[in-house]
Amino acid sequence: MGIIQCRDVCKSFGEKKALDHVSLDFPKGKIFGLLGPNGAGKTTLIRIINRITIPNEGSVLFDGHPITQEDVARIGYLPEERGLYRKMKVGDQAMYLAQLKGMSSKAAAEELKKWFVKFGIESWWPKKVEELSKGMAQKVQFITTVVHRPSLLILDEPFSGFDPVNAQVIREEILRLKDEGATIVLSTHNMESVEELCDEIALINRSRLVITGGVTEIRRKYGNNNVELVYTGTEPVRPVPGTFRVLSDEDDSGRRTAVLTLENGVGNTEVLKTILDQSVNISSFRELVPRMNDIFIKLVTEEE
Asked: What is the pTM of this model?
């Protein structure tokens, strides 16, 4: 059972349907990618989970029971629209937000100081938020999202505003939090981050759930039975009817790279055997699995 279970969730704003019978489970202890183009309904679903808004139909369960405001205190939510009070001092702002999540003043101060030291930003404590750059403010908001050690983290475009070095720091923290047992929902358009971090994903488009499942399984499902063959030989590898076709074959000073399409039901072992019969020396042979970015574009385009 997932930590969050959405059952036939519907939400409309006037004539616009934001969510249309969306059912999803966010598995415990995993990083779950919530994907979709702008306006697909992702943010509406996140706001419903956080009880910022309520669905017109359907239900949301937290650990098996209807979600309550007390459960929301166990959620850390980093919205895409960042919101710190610009005139407040950083330390005062962080303390305020930590206490809103139920932490005592003493516990909040202790935990925040640990995070500020970890990120090397102790000197920011007395600064005003308006003195910080976008990336600096983003670090502070990430800390205030995770400081109360939530069971569920919902991060909406968490790498926005970060340079590559700091983005990697945040990635490492996300993975560490997962290792400590947190469930993380990652809403992002960065497909590289999805492949690197996510165990499972769901794609929402035009208010409906399009696909959900493991990242590896989905990538294999949308593969085209293509493999890459790197080899040497006196002649280009020849297609074998009923076994494989040759899509391309390029020669680089005697070292050739071919892309083959396997016929349905044909395994790698059979293909390799027929290739070896052609008296070539194989250097490498690997499946060409499509990237999540290509799958995202394909599915969204087909929907439209």
From this structure: 0.84
The pLDDT tens digits of the residues spanning 45-55 come to 999 999 999 99
Residues 150-172 have a mean pLDDT of: 91
Ordered by where they begin, the domains of the chain are 4-220 (3.40.50.300), 224-288 (3.30.70)
Question: Would you tell me the crossing angle of helices 134-146 and 164-179 to the nearest 10 degrees?
Answer: 0
Task: Evaluate if residue 76 carries a pLDDT over 70.
Answer: yes
